[in-house]
Design goal:
This protein is of the alpha+beta class and 630 residues long. It has two domains: 279 residues, Alpha-Beta Plaits, CATH 3.30.70; 285 residues, Formate dehydrogenase/DMSO reductase domain (Formate dehydrogenase/DMSO reductase fold). It contains 16 helices and twelve strands.
Length: 630
C-alpha cells in the first residue's frame, strides 16, 4: 500500500501543473480545464484509522454488506469511477481563519458551479469582531455543509432525501425527493440545507463529488484567494498548517453532529467577539481558550408588544398543532366517558349532539391536515412524509396523526350506524376504532413533541414542549366540548370542563416556569431567545402569562359557584385560554434562535432580510432576499 501511495505521489510531482491521470471511462465526470493548478488537486496521503470522535475513517469498514471499493456514484448517470486510492475514506474541509480575507470567492465559485439563484448559497461567509481601536479585530468564517459523521439532517428528513455515501463520506441530498417541509433546516446547526421558497424544496452542498472523482478539490477550495480553505481526508493536516481544531469562535458545539471540518486560528483574539447580524449572540472566551455563545443585549431592556411580528411562515403549524391537540383531547374525553359509562359525562354520549360534534372534529382535523400539507413546498408529494419511520420524528408524527384521523372517522361512522341498527358487533367495532384513535392520538402527540426536541434549537429543547402539547389537549379540548355540550347541561358537566381547563393550563404553566428558570441560568441561543421574549415581545409575553393565570382562577371560581355565574366565569376562562394558547404557540415559533453560523451585516442576516421585505428591496433579485414564500 505504501509503495502504491509513493508511486502516485511521484507521478503527481512529475506532472507538476499538468492534469492528473484519469480513470479509464468513456467520458469525464467533470470537465477539467487544461491548466488546473496543483493546489486544486486532491492530496494523496496515508490516512489515520480513526477520527477524533472514535469513528473509522475508512467507511467501507462501516458498511454491513462490504460494498465494493470501486462502486460508481452514477453522477449525472455517468457510470465512471474515480481513481483516488482514498476514495472511500471520510473527507472534509479545513478552514484557516488567519488567512480568510472575506472576499467571498468561495461563495461565488460554489454558486456558479451549482447554478444557484441569488437568494440561495450553499457556502456563505460571515464574520465576528471584537476589541477596540487600534486593537480591533475581525475574523471571517466560511461555512458550508460539514458532511457530518452523525448527520441529523439525514435522520430528520421524512422523505429520505439524504444519503451518507461511502464515497468520500459525502452527505448528499436529492432535491427531487424533497417535498420542502424544511425540517432539515431546523435540525442542522450550520444552516447548510437551503430551503428555496420559490422552488419549494431544499438543496445543499454536495462536496463537489464530481470534481473529487476527477482528482480535484471542491470548487470553493480551488477558488479561495487567501489559501484559507482546504480539503482532504479528515484529520490530515494540510501543508503549511499547524492546527486541526474542531472548534472556532462562532462555531456550534461539534458534539451535536460530529462535523467533518477542522480549523486553524492562531492569532490572539479578544475575550469577547460579537456578531454583526441581528442575532443577540456574542462569544465569550473561557479559561480553556474555547469560545462559548452568550446573550448580547443589543435591543436593550425596553419591552414591547410587537403583535404584527407574531405572524410567521409557521402560522399553519400554529393552527395545526393547536387544533390537533384540541380535537384529540375532546375526542378522548367523549369516547372514554362513553366507554366507562361515566355518569357525570353522560351528556357527551347521549342524543345526536355527540355525532354532530364528532363530524365537526373530522372537518377540523381534515382541514388542518390539508393546511399542514399546503405548508409544504411541494404539497402533492405529501405521501413521502412516511418514508423515514425508522429515524424521523416527523414521519412518526404524521403516521400517528393519520391513524388517529382514520380511527376518528371509523368511530364516527360506526357509532352513527349503531344508532340505527343497535348491533353488538357494530358497537364492538366502534369501540375498537375509538381505542385505536385514542392510542394513535397519544402516540402522535408524543412524536409531535419529539419534532421540537432539537439540539440545534435550544429554546425548544426542553420538556416544557411535552407539558405544553398535552396540556393543550386538556385545556383546548375542554373549550371545544363546552361549545357543543355546555348549553342546557347541568352544572356537573361545567365543573368537569372547568377542571380540565385548569389542569391543562396548570400543566403548561408549570412547564413554562421551569423553562424560564432554565433559560435564565443558561447561556447561548436558548437564553438569547428568552431575552427576545422578555424585551421585543415582553408585553405580549406578560399578557399571555396573565391571561393563563386569570383563566385558571376563573375556572376555579366556576367550580365554587353555580348557575349562570359559573357559566359566565368558565366562558370567560375559555376565551382567555384560547387567546393565551394562540399567542403562546405563535411565540413558540417566532422566538426560537438556531445554533447557526454568524452572518454578515447584509448577507445571511435575518434583520436585513426583514428590512428588505418591509421596504420592498426584496423585490429586486440582486438583493438576495425573497419576498414571497410558499
Amino acid at each position: 500500500m505504501m509503495a502504491l501511495l509513493k508511486s502516485v505521489r511521484d507521478r503527481l510531482d512529475a506532472m507538476g501543473d499538468q492534469p492528473a491521470a484519469k480513470p479509464t471511462h468513456e467520458r469525464k465526470i467533470f470537465e477539467e480545464r487544461n491548466d488546473e493548478r496543483s493546489y486544486a488537486k486532491l492530496p494523496i496521503c496515508d490516512p489515520k484509522e480513526e477520527n477524533r470522535y472514535g469513528r473509522k475513517i475508512d467507511l467501507i469498514d462501516l458498511t454491513e454488506n462490504k460494498l465494493p471499493k470501486n462502486r460508481s456514484m452514477y453522477i449525472n448517470e455517468n457510470p465512471a469511477v474515480g481513481c483516488n486510492p482514498n476514495r472511500n475514506k471520510q473527507h472534509g474541509f479545513h478552514f484557516t481563519a488567519d488567512n480568510c480575507i472575506g472576499c467571498h470567492a468561495c461563495e461565488a465559485a460554489c454558486s456558479e458551479k451549482n447554478d444557484n439563484p441569488a437568494h440561495i448559497s450553499f457556502r456563505s461567509v460571515g464574520y465576528v469582531e471584537g476589541g477596540s481601536y487600534p486593537a480591533y479585530q475581525r475574523m471571517n468564517i466560511s461555512m458550508a455543509c460539514n458532511h457530518c459523521d452523525d448527520p441529523v439532517c439525514l435522520k430528520g428528513c421524512p422523505t429520505r432525501a439524504y444519503t451518507k455515501h461511502v464515497e468520500y463520506g459525502a452527505v448528499l441530498q436529492d432535491p427531487e425527493t424533497c417535498f420542502g417541509c424544511g425540517y432539515c433546516t431546523w435540525v442542522c446547526p450550520y444552516n447548510a440545507p437551503q430551503l428555496d421558497p420559490i422552488q419549494g424544496r431544499v438543496s445543499k452542498c454536495n462536496m463537489c463529488v464530481d470534481r473529487l472523482e476527477e482528482g480535484l478539490k471542491p470548487a470553493c477550495v480551488s477558488a479561495c484567494l487567501g489559501n484559507a480553505l482546504n480539503f482532504g481526508v479528515i484529520e490530515e493536516m494540510p501543508e503549511n498548517r499547524d492546527q486541526i481544531e474542531a472548534q472556532i469562535p462562532g462555531f456550534p458545539d461539534p458534539s451535536i453532529t460530529n462535523p467533518n471540518i477542522r480549523f486553524q486560528q492562531t492569532r490572539s483574539m479578544p475575550n469577547e467577539m460579537t456578531r454583526t447580524d441581528s442575532m443577540p449572540i456574542k462569544y465569550h472566551k473561557e479559561d480553556d481558550g474555547n469560545f462559548v455563545s452568550v446573550v448580547d443585549e443589543k435591543e436593550g431592556k425596553e419591552q414591547f408588544f410587537n403583535l404584527k411580528r407574531l405572524s410567521s411562515r409557521e402560522n399553519p403549524l400554529v393552527i395545526f398543532t393547536l387544533a390537533t391537540q384540541a380535537v384529540i383531547g375532546a375526542f378522548m374525553t367523549m369516547f372514554l366517558s362513553s366507554l366507562f359509562g361515566i355518569e357525570v359525562l353522560a351528556p357527551l354520549s347521549e342524543g345526536l349532539t355527540p355525532i354532530f360534534a364528532l363530524i365537526v372534529m373530522i372537518a377540523i382535523q381534515a382541514g388542518v391536515l390539508v393546511l399542514s400539507t399546503l405548508h409544504l413546498g411541494k404539497p402533492l408529494r405529501f405521501y413521502r412524509g412516511f418514508n423515514n419511520l425508522k429515524h424521523s420524528p416527523l414521519s412518526r408524527e404524521a403516521l400517528g396523526i393519520a391513524m388517529f384521523f382514520a380511527g376518528l372517522c371509523g368511530y364516527t361512522f360506526l357509532t352513527a350506524v349503531n344508532m340505527m341498527l343497535e348491533s353488538g358487533f357494530v358497537s364492538l367495532l366502534a369501540t375498537l376504532s375509538g381505542l385505536f384513535a385514542c392510542v394513535s392520538g397519544i402516540v402522535g402527540l408524543y412524536f409531535m413533541h419529539c419534532i421540537y426536541r432539537v439540539k440545534a434549537r435550544p429554546f425548544w429543547n426542553h420538556w416544557q414542549v411535552l407539558t405544553s402539547f398535552y396540556g393543550t389537549m386538556f385545556s383546548l379540548g375542554s373549550v371545544f366540548l363546552g361549545v357543543f355540550f355546555l348549553a342546557g347541561s347541568d352544572s356537573t358537566l361545567l365543573s368537569i370542563l372547568a377542571i380540565m381547563t385548569a389542569i391543562g393550563l396548570t400543566a403548561e404553566g408549570l412547564g413554562l416556569v421551569a423553562h424560564a428558570r432554565y433559560l435564565n441560568t443558561e447561556s447561548g441561543e436558548g437564553a438569547a431567545a428568552h431575552y427576545i421574549q422578555s424585551t421585543t415581545f415582553g408585553k405580549t409575553y406578560l399578557a399571555r402569562n396573565a391571561m393563563m393565570i386569570t383563566a385558571v382562577v376563573l375556572s376555579i371560581a366556576a367550580l365554587a359557584t353555580g348557575g349562570l355565574t359559573a357559566t359566565l366565569f368558565w366562558s370567560l376562562a375559555a376565551v382567555l385560554t384560547t387567546a393565551a394558547l394562540l399567542i403562546g404557540r405563535a411565540l413558540f415559533y417566532v422566538l426560537v434562535i438556531p445554533t447557526t453560523m454568524p452572518g454578515a451585516f447584509f448577507w445571511k442576516n435575518k434583520g436585513f432580510e426583514q428590512h428588505a421585505k418591509d421596504i420592498g428591496l426584496a423585490a429586486k433579485v440582486e438583493a438576495g432576499v425573497v419576498a414571497d414564500a410558499h
